[in-house]
Design brief:
It is built from 7 helices and 12 strands. The protein has helices spanning 2-12, 16-21, 181-186, 203-213, 259-267, 336-340, 347-353; strands spanning 27-32, 35-37, 41-47, 57-61, 67-71, 74-75, 79-83, 103-104, 106-110, 126-128, 141-144, 150-153. A hairpin with a 3-residue loop joins β6 and β7.
Length: 481
Amino acid sequence: MIALAVVAVAAALPPASASAARPAVPTVSNVAPLNLGIGDTLTITGRNFRAGANRNTVVFKRDGQRAVFVRAEEATATRIRLKVPDKLSQYLSRRSDGTARPTRFRLRVLAARFGRTFTATRLSPVVSAAVSGSATPTTGTTIRNGSGRTETIAASTDPDCDGDGVPNSLDPDDDNDFLSDVLEISLKLNTCSNDTDGDGMQDGWEYQSAIDLNNPGCNNPAYPTPCTPATPYPWKVSYPNPLDGGDAGYDFDGDWIPAWQEHQAWMRHSGHDLSMAGMWYSDGLQASQDDPSITSCVGLAPPAPLLGNSSYSLDRDGDGCLNDNERDEDNDYLTNGEELSSALSSIGWWSSVYDTENAFRYSFTGTNWLDGDTDGDGVLDGLDDQDHDDFWNVEEIERGSASVDSSGGSTGVTTGLWVNPFNPCLPWTGSRTCPIGVPASGTIWAPFPDRQGRLPQPRWPLWGTAAWPSGLPTHPISRPS
C-alpha cells in the first residue's frame, strides 16, 4: 500500500528536470541586407542559435511554394551568416518572358528547435537572380572599367544597408535613421530599415517624439527641454512608437496634427535630425520649435502681419508665439491648423461646426498645408479665393462675434463678417459667383432663409443685415492694385 502511494506521488510530480533541459526556441530580430542576390551573404540576428559551422539550418520559403533548407556556414548564439545558394534560383518568381524577378522569401531558423513561425514581411529579404542596386556583386562578376577593359571583382561579404559606400561593419548607423545600431538592437528595431514597423515614419523620429512626449511630471521652466530622465517607451502603447505600425494617425501631443503629417513636415526641412534644432516637428510637443527670446510662452515668434494689418496675424490665440498648429509651413498666410483640420481643410468642417447652416450646392477644393499654391495659379493660398467670390481665403476664415445668442436674441454686436470660403454667397449675396435666385425645390444654402422663412442661426452679419445691398462691400484691408 505504501509502495503504491509512492508511485502515485511520483507520477503526480511535474517533469521539472525534463522541462528545464529543453532548449529554447530560436527567434529572429533582424535580417540584413533586405535586398540581395544569389551568392550574397545574409546575416540573421536573434537569439537561441547554435554556435558553430553547419549547426543551424535556415529555411527559405516563398509564399505558396515549397520550403528550401540551407545550412548556415557560421553562427554564434545570436548571429547567423550564410551565402544565399544557387538552388534558390529555381524558386524565384518569373516574368512573362521567363526571366527571374526579385522575390521575397520568409525565413525560419532550425537550431536545437524549430522557430515557431516564419518571419514577417519586414524581416523577409528580397532575393534577386542577378546583381541589383542593393545586392552585392558575387565573386567572379565581370565588369567594364573606365578604360573599356574588363576586370573581375571579388564579392564583398559585408553588406551596405543604406548604400552610402560604408559597409555595415564600419557604419554606426546602417539605415540612416539617426539611431545607432547598438541602440536599435537594444530597442528591438531593425538596423537595416529606417522604418521598422512600416508605418511611413522613420524610427529615429518616432523615438525622439516619444522622448519629447514621455516626460515625467516636474516643474520644468526650460520647456520644451525634456525633464530628466525622459525616456521613450518602445512598446505598443500610446506613444509615437517605432514598433507600432498603427500609430501614424494619432495626435499624441494634442496640436491637431496627426503624427504622420508632423513627420511629413519634419522630412521636408533640409538638415532635419533628432536634435532640438533639427526636430522641426515632433509629435511629443505642441510647440516643437521655440524662440528663446520669447519669455512669455513657448513657440516661434509670429511673423509680421499680412499687409501690416494685425487682424491677419498667424498668432490666432494672441499669446505672442506660434505653436505647431499656428505655424505656416508653406508660407501662404494660413496656419497649419486652418489648412489641415479646420477652416480651409474642406466644406465638411463648416457644416459640422455650424450645423444649422446649409452648405452651398456644390463643393470646392480645400488647400494643401505643404503647398503654398495648391491650385498652381501663381497666387498664394491665403490670398487666393476658393469660392471665386472675390474675397481672399484669409478674409473668409474668421467669422467674428456672433450677433445672436443661443436663444436667438440679439447680442448687440453687428461687426462680424458672415463668411465661408466654400460658399460664394457669403459674405456677399451679390458676388459674381453667387447664383441668381434660389432653387425651386431642395435645400437652400446660406445665407438665404429656408422654405419656412428661417435664417441660419447663429449668424454673423455684415452691416447688421443678412442679405446685402448691391455694390461691393468695403474690405477689411485695402487690396493691392
